[in-house]
Amino acid sequence: MRAVWFDRFTERPVLRDVPDPVPTPRGVVVRVEATGLCRSDVHGWLGHDDGIALPHVPGHELVGTITTVGQEVRRFGPGDRVTTPFICACGHCPECAAGNGQVCRNQTQPGFTHWGSFAEQVALHDADTNLIAVPASLDAGAAALLGCRFATSYRGLVHQARLEAGQSLAVVGCGGVGLSAVMIGVALGAQVIAVDVDDAALERARRFGAVHTVNSAGLSVEEAVHAVRDAVPSGIDVSVDALGREQTAALGILSLRPRGRHVQIGLFPADPVVPMGAVISGELTVLGSHGMPARDYPGLLDLIGEGRLRPQDLIERTIPLSAVPDALVAMAGDRSVGGVTVVDPRL
């Protein structure tokens, strides 16, 4: 099969022929219909994830059709259209038993612990625990984005921060993850304030329902906090850092009202300094969101089925596998063209 492949971190990947994947006894092989291009893929290619063994095929957000199943798989079969959380749980450890497969101690991650979905086919492990049936009516790009950015944002806002209708939500960073958080916040009935350094990103946030936007380019953290507080003088109920910078995390935390909740979704290149004084004095809650177990997908799928959430509206371009190497390099250099890119390996 064709796949995007690299054997050294930071060196430009190439498109080449590699062996077809084989399912594990509890796993399946999926023919990829669509797969999202995400900043996490860039972190992996840059060597920021110590779980990646070289050579490697990246890609972790996907939808496709099962071609082959392992002999222990019971709930799914060839021809089923499925997606999966990017964190695949084992289904047996204490975390999984408690319903927290997103922090499974034996987790596997396509595109990180093993070869991923920037390919014509991908192997997925522990299928009965992790696969989610996808109706034929659901847009392929929308289904692919449910694996990472929408699931992570949904869990962060709904299961972690307990965002409610009428509350205020500040989203810092309006890339794919941030805009998915904007869309979910709006679908939940929150008042959304979007922060970014790019006017085009902020225009997308307004298009998806943000009622206030703040361009923080050239502003100090304190100045950006004042700009957010001008929109919501009483302070923000829930903030999300969707980028992963020390300054963006601080902006989210310092914008909160007393006892507000901050959700950290963006990954940091290195551990940041967090304004713990504000956390202590305001009794703030700082939460992580690292994916969502398959069993928690029904609420997200209900929002989509009701028409309140349309992940496909986030997609601005679809590219073939041959264009992925240049797209990864561009995103790593912050030279991507904005919006969400989906890869169609069939092109």
From TrEMBL:
A GO MF label: oxidoreductase activity
Keyword Protein biosynthesis: no
Keywords: Metal-binding, Oxidoreductase, Zinc
Cofactor names: Zn(2+)
The Enoyl reductase (ER) domain, residue ranges: 8-342
Listed Pfam families: ADH_N, ADH_zinc_N
Gene3D superfamilies on file: Medium-chain alcohol dehydrogenases, catalytic domain
Family: Belongs to the zinc-containing alcohol dehydrogenase family.
Stated name of the protein: Zinc-dependent alcohol dehydrogenase family protein
